[in-house]
Amino acid sequence: MLEIKNLHARIAEDGTEILRGVDLTVKPGEVAAIMGPNGSGKSTLSYVIAGRDDYEVTEGDILWNGESILEMDPAERAAAGVFLAFQYPMEIPGVPTMEFLKTALNAQRTSRGEEALKIPEMLKRVKAASSELEMDISMLKRPLNVGFSGGEKKRAEILQMKLLEPKLCVLDETDSGLDIDALKVVADGVNHLRSEDRAFLVITHYQRLLNHIVPDSVHVLYKGRVIRSGGKELALQLEDQGYAEIIGEAA
Amino acid sequence: MTAHTLIKNTQAESALIDAFAKSIDTLPGAATTTTARKTAIGGISTRGLPTRRVEEWHYTDLRNRLKTVPEGDARASGDALNALAEGIARIDLFDGNVPSDLPTGVQVTHLRDLLERGELDRSLAPADPEDVIGALNAAFVSHGAALTIDAGAKLDKPLELSASHGPGQAHLRVPVSVGADVEATIVERQTGEGAAFVTGVVDLTVGDDANVLWVLVQEQAVDTDQLTQMKFRLGKNARLTLAILNAGGRLVRHEIRGVLEGEGGDFQMRCVNLLGGESHVDVTMVLDHIVPNTTGTEIVRNIATGKASGVFQGQIRVAKEAQKTDARMACNTLLVSDEADFSAKPELEIFADDVACGHGATVAEIDEAHLFYLMSRGIPENRARALLVKAFVAEILEELDHEAISEALVSKVDDWFSKNG
Lengths: 251, 421
Known about the structure:
The complex is a heterodimer of chains A (251) and B (421).
Chain A: E1 2-11, E2 17-26, E3 31-35, H1 42-50, E4 55-64, E5 67-68, H2 74-79, E6 82-85, E7 92-96, H3 97-111, H4 119-132, E8 143-144, H5 150-164, E9 168-172, H6 180-193, E10 199-204, H7 208-212, E11 217-222, E12 225-230, H8 232-241, H9 244-250
Parallel strand pairs in A: 3-10, 3-11, 6-9, 9-10
Antiparallel strand pairs in A: 1-2, 1-4, 4-5, 7-8, 11-12
Helix pairs in contact in A: 4-5, 5-6
Chain B: H1 11-23, H2 31-47, H3 62-65, E1 89-92, E2 106-110, H4 111-116, H5 121-124, H6 132-140, E3 143-149, E4 159-165, E5 168-178, E6 183-192, E7 196-206, E8 211-219, E9 224-234, E10 239-246, E11 251-260, E12 266-275, E13 280-289, E14 295-304, E15 309-318, E16 326-335, E17 341-350, E18 356-363, H7 368-375, H8 381-397, H9 403-420
């Protein structure tokens, strides 16, 4: 279970406060959608959960299964089951994709006391996952994300998520830059991973994604706080009325 | 009396002069060759080895750094070497052995035969008084092979020039003449074991419309000092891609002296210097654009660990006639240890007025965003950093036009990291 309590965070470099007291709980098996206008702090929230040190937490806490993760570095959080699908996945020339996947998967496995996967088993899993996501496996011979289109990068993120089998999946604007066919493939990939012991935090600007990944709860983030929570119908209401009305009510 | 005669020879200088006196009667060559050799060593004995006061040698004080020169021909115990990748035809520069699967259109001549016939006399003369590598090699050269590749030949496999030496001295020379319209990949290996002193000169001519990938892999032992040089001339619309991997040696200097002689010529250099231990590796390039419409891009990436030091001097000279020259040079260094250092000296000397030229030299750092991405997938910080350090150099090797060779080079980089990481 993810419990975010009164979370305040600012940009480390210039001290700008972005999150101003976020409260949010996501139970195992739950898909929680975070919506909000640009600049509301959605991406910051995802980075702070993943442990990016460009941000400083000044108040509050993030508990994952009852324990604070604030002192853990990003790799430790990943090993604890946290996964962030990036809005803009990075191209890293010189790092072969397969080597990266193997290193990541086996680092997590060994840190959990599991046995490292051998290359044939690894390849088998990568092939299965990439065919499900309709990805050409020859792409994985390239350096990490290098020369991938926007859509291919997003699929590659979901591919990593499938392989790493995290328990908390944070999807940051996974729908941006995807055409409708790619969106369906990616959403199917996510839906296949839904299970009782896995929680999702789906961050999106538009309702569109939520037609394909149907959330259990919807939370509206505005100026660094959750100003409204509800069921999936809240997303539809936002789609109809825009953010202005809800923001007005909260203010 | 001139200042030169006041020099008291260092141990290394004396060893070189003694070695020459001992071997001159047995070194291969016509009478005229012997004269050329004596002239070459004469410059060394009167002037001494260059110090930091000689501009070209400012960052590599050869006189001070070259402590000793071992005796004897290094050939004897040189270990056989596996080819860099599968499907490569290997030519042994010591015994001149030519493989049975030598591609059609390639002729190999023993260097010894050329020396005996006096055919190399003219090319043995050092380019200028600072051409100490040319002079030392001219004085002592005894091994090597001359390659001729016939016009129009498209080599179906790469050639590998292999020179694995044992302890002692090895002096090699490789004149290569590539005909017009040739496609060829040539791998040069510099490796061996035991305390050794090595000099080498490659003298390459690339004919019109030819396309050559030249891959130099230097993996000398920690007690080997090596001074080598590559001279090249490119014809019209000729292309030379020079990939260099320096991953060993104690004192290493590699000079590149290139001339783009024909319009449309293109020179591409990708150089990776992996500096570890107490090694000192110097790559010094002088590139002349002398006709219009030539291009060149040189990318140098360095990783320095331990107490290693490195040097890149890159001088691009664009003649007045060489309009529309496009010349780019970049040298980036990752300093992994506080005690390592790297000196970069890029220079542009431009006399034409319609050119696009640029250079940059930077000290690079690991990209924190990349580090976060890798760590967010569960890769611990130290491993993530190691991956990114390797990526910094692998990036420029993985784009070569020969996949198996690219992969072999990247795996050499892996090997180096497992020893020095």
